[in-house]
Amino acid sequence: MADERAGVDLGPAGEENWASLKSALEAESGFDLFFVISDNRFARDEIRRRVRETAKPPLIERIYEPPSGISRIAGDLVEIAETLGDRHAIWVEGRGPGPEIDAAWRKGLARLNERRNTVIRKCPHAVLIAGDRDFYALVSRRAPDFFSVRSRVDFFPDPPIDPAIRETRPSFGYAPLAHDLQPPSYYLELAAGLANNERTADLELHAKMLFQAARSHEMHGDWDEALRVLRNDVLPTFERLGDVRERAVTMGKIANIMQSRGELDEALRTLREDVLPAFERLGDVRSRAVTTGKIADILQSRGELDEALCIRREEELPVYERLGDVRSRAVTTGKIADIMQRKGLHDDAIAMRREECKTYEQLRDAVSHAQCQFEIATNMAERGRAEAAKEVLELALSAYAAFKRLGLKEWVEGIGGVLKEMGVPLDQIE
Predict the structure, then answer these.
(1) What is the pLDDT of residues 371-406, one digit of tens each?
(2) Collapsing DSSP states into helix, strand and coil, what is residue 36?
(3) CA pair distance 250, 255, nearest whole angstrom
(4) pLDDT recorded at residue 273
(5) DSSP per-residue codes, 281-299
(6) Minimal CA–CA distance to 362: which of 322, 329, 335?
(7) Is the entire prediction scored with pTM above 0.70?
(8) Residue 321's pLDDT band (boundaries 50, 70, 90)?
(9) Region of residue 76 (left: phi > 0; alpha: psi -120 to 50; beta: else)
(10) How many other β-carbons are positioned within 10 Å of the β-carbon of residue 427?
(11) Taking the CA atoms of the chain, what radius of gyration do you get in angstroms?
């Protein structure tokens, strides 16, 4: 479950809405439906915290994370009610990437709409359903009959807090990260709930769930099945919808898998002839830069260092500088340093690494900063500059505990191995 911050100031409008919601919760009886709507997760967390503190009897919380279980919401409410006596407040919310929440709620809302009379009769409690404005728009389209019951909607704006914790609806971006992906069956089940529906939004979401299934197949090493899903199911849908961007993203993923399979020529052709021109037509400079970076990755892996270096310096890096994307600039700088080192330009490589490290330090990214310092130390150690390497490694040791805590075994062993070669007892850094 996402972490919560107690005592968030909701701002004048938010505090007024909370006072109204609190009074309504105290005054009503029987089944009531409350929509708590905010594009800010911390605002929703704060409302949930306040309801938990004021609710008598205690608040019942049903957080669906991952969100696929939302499809069973109608049955779950009836089942929860069977265990309760006096009227309770029941908080319902889905957590996860936006498209997964949308896919689950589409199915859940349809069933909730169909079984509304049963839910109203068997669940005589206050049901608070939390989500963002896109979710509320979905409710209005998919379960309009549910508004025939007693219901109210409270909108909460972004709280006036530090922008560092100001979070809006999670963009798709083909999140989650690979290590957070569910098994393919999870996404296939979500996609199945959207099948045989000709609504454009449902077709798009169906394809995106299948895209995630393909990513999960890829993560598990089933490249053939990943390619089959992308080529036979995802790509035709986006082509039918005329969605140039999503088609390009899908082709980019196909190229990634071909690269993993060692089909470098075909991957390179796909990126150059299909993906790159699409982003150029769309005027999407960032996606174009990312694609040129993938082209450079392939060239670099094939030993075509001069062309890869040219792309990174002239086509990729300047875009991130113009966009002010300091992290992408640092990552690209590190890849340029890799090329420099392979070309034997060790001093230039170290200089680039130091520049990369400064960025990670500014971003307070301790892990990336330590990894970067480790690369510098390894470079120095390989050149026989053991004392300098040891000095650099001393700076990286502060992140040693973080590596262990995060389970980054490869980095822990790497640092330990270099230290051991330099004569530093490992028990000094445990």
Answers:
(1) 787 778 777 766 665 556 566 566 556 555 666 666
(2) strand
(3) 9
(4) 95
(5) HHT-HHHHHHHHHHHHHHH
(6) 329
(7) no
(8) very high
(9) alpha
(10) 6
(11) 26
